[in-house]
Design brief:
single chain, alpha/beta, Rossmann fold, 2 domains, six-stranded parallel sheet, about 15% strand, globular, binds nicotinamide-adenine-dinucleotide
Length: about 450
């Protein structure tokens, strides 16, 4: 099939290159000329494991191309994926201006044949019909006349990939959700995803797993949009739940890592998303929880659980600073090193990264804040310019009064902590992800403070 992906960010680039790998011909469009120039020259401007290689492979095979011209992308395609950002507004609602601009632009270039417009951006419930209306307006602006079901249909196809494992998540998802009122559009979407549904890849599986087939789920538009928000809200709440339990564990002398293991073994609960620590971050959880709460407000629904998930998460970030204060007392004039800056391992994404909240607070309190991250230093520096980033983790910990493990990159978990101890001025390590071997660190004379243990 001929496919256009609009928006070459974390979702669009992965979606486009994976769909190309299924054998589709994909043109990926972005408004950012520098980004498209970089991609055309073979440079992937974000870090996602395996993405650079996959993009190169699909470009070489002639299945993936890039453009800044929406009209070209729409003109050459049967299915158009909207993958642009939906960042939060100050009110918590999703800012739909990027989606609106793209929908209008698509409408203006819809002049022949039947096309399917797929909303992969995370959008407020009800946006599918709204996008169809904007597309119709765009068509009318050029003197045309077309309505959903006639020249085009709108489909909601929420994205569930996790940064850091985005390619395997796309190739081997638990489920593919497609919401639409159009039978014709749903059938096309099923055909498009057949290699993933059948787990049979014409050019080989770039990240082989068990071969378990994903669930195919057809819904109405609104339910598909709600599934995305409810999934993220549930995951965020699960982490906030274990963090609240961790805080109680700390007081009563229990170890939250053992408690989480014990409750996670219950198949009704499951072990994933039960790691206590610095809390969740990233571009999606906060904005999606806030957007769901904003939608609820519009309908006069209360959101006690969603509100609590946000509050607990914010408190976890403060807790790390409190642990430093408890141990070092006066933070003014101290040097604190953050190991890890990205919101999670495996990505360079620093959007709403907990490490940056900690960095900002430490700077406000008069600390010198040094940091090392394998991939995210550049993005972090853009947000917190006073951060002193280094190219080497051992350089970062030199002369530190305390070290905080903020992102559990394997290479940071497995540092030579004997060397770390010899380079630090102090001996305090705050293991904000409960990922370190505390006995090993203690054997090197380090004092380890975890979360909820
Ligand atoms: P992103 O900010 O990384 O990428 C968005 C891209 O869209 C940018 O490259 C931007 O230049 C481009 N863009 C903006 N306006 C445009 C326009 N008018 N025409 C063409 N391109 C335009 O965002 P992302 O992280 O990829 O997220 C995209 C959407 O997917 C969001 O709604 C997000 O909530 C959702 N989502 C993200 C993830 C994730 O892990 N990042 C996971 C699931 C869903």
């Amino acid at each position: 099939m001929n496919i256009c992906v609009v928006g070459c960010g974390y979702v669009g680039l992965v979606t486009g290159s994976c769909l190309a790998h299924l054998g589709h011909k994909v043109i990926a469009v972005d408004i950012d000329e520098d980004k498209i120039a970089a991609l055309k020259s073979g440079r992937v401007p974000i870090y996602e494991p395996g993405l650079q290689e996959l993009v190169a492979e699909e470009m070489d095979a002639g299945r993936l191309g890039f453009s800044t011209c929406l009209a070209q992308g729409v003109g050459e395609s049967d299915v158009i994926f909207i993958c642009v950002g939906t960042p939060p507004k100050e009110t918590g609602e999703a800012d739909m201006s990027q989606v609106e601009a793209v929908a209008r632009g698509i409408g203006r270039c819809l002049n022949s044949g039947y096309k399917i417009i797929v909303n992969k951006s995370t959008v407020p419930v009800g946006s599918g019909d709204w996008v169809a209306m904007i597309i119709s307006d765009g068509i009318a602006e050029t003197g045309g006349c077309s309505h959903p079901g006639d020249g085009f249909d709108v489909v909601s196809n929420p994205e569930f990939l996790r940064e850091g494992s985005a390619i395997p998540d796309t190739m081997h998802p638990d489920r593919i959700v497609v919401g639409s009122s159009s039978r014709r559009a749903i059938e096309v979407m099923k055909e498009l995803y057949t290699p993933i549904l059948e787990q049979s890849f014409p050019y080989g599986d770039p990240c082989p797993t068990t071969g378990r087939k994903p669930h195919w789920m057809e819904t109405d538009l609104t339910s598909a949009e709600m599934i995305k928000y409810a999934s993220n809200a549930f995951l965020a709440t699960k982490i906030s739940f274990i963090n609240e339990v961790a805080n109680i564990c700390e007081k009563v002398g229990a170890d939250v890592t053992q408690v989480a293991k014990g409750i996670g073994l219950d198949s009704r609960i499951g072990s994933k998303f039960l790691s206590a620590g610095l809390g969740w971050g990233g571009s999606c959880f906060r904005k999606d929880v806030m957007a769901l709460a904003a939608i609820a407000r519009d309908y006069c629904c209360t959101t006690h659980i969603l509100d609590a998930a946000l509050v607990v998460n914010d408190l976890q970030r403060v807790k790390v600073v409190q642990k430093l204060q408890d141990n070092l007392k006066m933070l003014k004039g101290k040097t604190v090193t953050l190991l890890g800056l990205a919101f999670k391992p495996g990505t360079d994404d620093c959007r709403d990264a907990p490490a940056l909240t900690v960095a900002r607070r430490l700077l406000e309190l008069g600390c010198k804040v040094k940091a090392y991250d394998p991939k995210a230093s550049h993005n972090a520096k853009r947000e917190v310019p006073c951060l002193i980033t280094t190219e080497d983790p051992y350089e970062a910990v030199s002369d530190a009064d305390a070290v905080v493990l903020a992102t559990e990159w394997p290479e940071l978990v497995n540092l030579d902590y004997g060397k770390v101890a010899s380079l630090m001025r102090g001996s305090l390590v705050v293991d904000a992800r409960n990922a370190l071997d505390r006995h090993l660190l203690q054997s090197h004379g380090l004092t380890v403070v975890g979360m909820g243990r």
